[in-house]
Amino acid sequence: MSTRKGIMRFFPFALLTLLLAGCGEEGLTALDPMGPQAQWLFDNMMLSLYVMALVIIVVFTLFFIAVIKFRKKPGDEEIPEQVEGSKTLELTWTVIPILLLVILAVPTVTGTFMLADTTPSGPEGSGDSGEEELDEDEIEEDGVTIEVTGHQYWWQFDYEEGFTAGQEVYIPAEEKVEFELHAEDVIHSFWVPALGGKVDNVPGITNNLWLEADEPGVYQGKCAELCGPSHALMDFKLIALDRDDYDAWVEEMSQDPEEFEPAEDDETMANQGREVFEQEGCIGCHAIGGQGSEQGPTLTNFGDRETLAGYLDPTDENLDEWIRYPQEVKQDNNMPGFPDMEDEDMEALIEYLQGLSVQD
Ligand code: HEC
Ligand SMILES: [Cu+2]
């Protein structure tokens, strides 16, 4: 084999390496677990990897020993002694795989029950201390359950306190949080790789999932079920806050609708923007502070968004482009464009939307 051929043989592997390098999108990895569920998945993956590696090493070592030791040597003319059947060997290669399967099955089965119990933990955390049992009533009161609805191509999060958030789901850190998954139109899948496995959002069905973040932070989420032309852009964020900050956020989000209106002074840009928002019919699809329709993502805390439409930087320029030509930014999404909006109106509208914040 020429050197050149040798190199060509490795070409597919080189290509694969390049492809796999693409798997490094910021925060979208299950190999850096940031919560107990993700940790469990990771540990199980490593366990099965070790078991498989062990099997491969043992089998291939025996195979090569056999091939090398018993190959035909110069001068070997006679057929060697033929051995058939060996009870010891048969038993060995039956019992060892059974043991290996048990080693894999025990953590898998116990973990499956652990994953299936989606009861939220409340502020006590998920540590399974005996005391937790005693406080069960309290836990039910304090534990956080969030309804998640997948839409083409955005996410809606309904909280028990009665308010709605769009695109970004806030949870308290160090607590087991329950998610009830629904879909409005087609099947989507809710996935925060750093925190746990994905579970499908299926129209007409409620699926349950729990996740816990070990520490406060912003975690990248993604729709993991092909749901249409803009499926790949159906990203979201999971934002874990300390319990106190989370409680403060919930309180801000639950305020009366009037609290989200710009101050009374008619001259401000934000006030003009609010008028444009009503006149152009944005309010027919977007609610703010619970006021308006929820056909599109709620904009109550739009000014706090990490992204625009799930994946863009929320700059004024991007917002302008989005409002005028949403179909070019996110193909097939359900927002109509406003290409002819007056610059002055647009400026006021942007000012108003960017100012919608519930954080200091
Ligand atoms: C017919 C319903 C409809 C109307 C009218 C509408 N929108 Fe939307 N809007 C949507 C939908 C649906 C989305 C989600 C698109 C996606 O990401 O798939 C959206 C997304 C947005 C977003 C991004 C939200 C986020 O969280 O990133 C902004 C901002 C927005 N719209 C502003 C406006 C403004 C301003 C107007 C009025 C000028 C308006 N919309 C009119 C349906 C509508
Ligand atoms: Cu989707």
Mean pLDDT: 90
Number of helical segments with 4 or more residues = 10
Strand content: 15-25%
Q: CATH top level of the largest domain? A: Mainly Beta
Low-confidence blocks of residues: 126-132
Trace the largest sheet across and list its strands: 3-2-1-5-8
CATH architecture of the largest domain: Sandwich
Number of strands: 10
Describe how the helices and strands are arranged.
Blueprint lengths: L2 H19 L14 H34 L17 H30 L14 H4 L1 H7 L2 E7 L2 E6 L4 E3 L1 E5 L4 E7 L4 E4 L7 E3 L5 E5 L5 E7 L11 E7 L1 H11 L15 H11 L36 H9 L1 H4 L13 H12 L6
Parallel strand pairs: 1-5, 4-10
Antiparallel strand pairs: 1-2, 2-3, 5-8, 6-7, 6-9, 9-10
Helix pairs in contact: 2-3, 7-10
Task: Give a short summary of the structure.
The protein is α+β, with helices and mostly antiparallel strands.
What would you say this structure looks like, in words?
The chain has 360 residues and is of the alpha+beta class. The chain has 2 domains: 189 residues, Immunoglobulin-like (Sandwich), CATH 2.60.40.420; 98 residues, Sandwich (Immunoglobulin-like). About 2% of the residues have low confidence. Helix 2 packs antiparallel against helix 3 and helix 7 packs across helix 10. Helices cover 39% and strands 15% of the residues. Strands 3-2-1-5-8 form a 5-stranded mixed sheet, with no helix packed on it. The chain starts with a helix and ends in a 6-residue tail after the last helix. The longest helix is centred in the first third of the chain and has 34 residues. Bound molecules: heme C and copper (II) ion. The site of copper (II) ion has 8 residues, from loops.
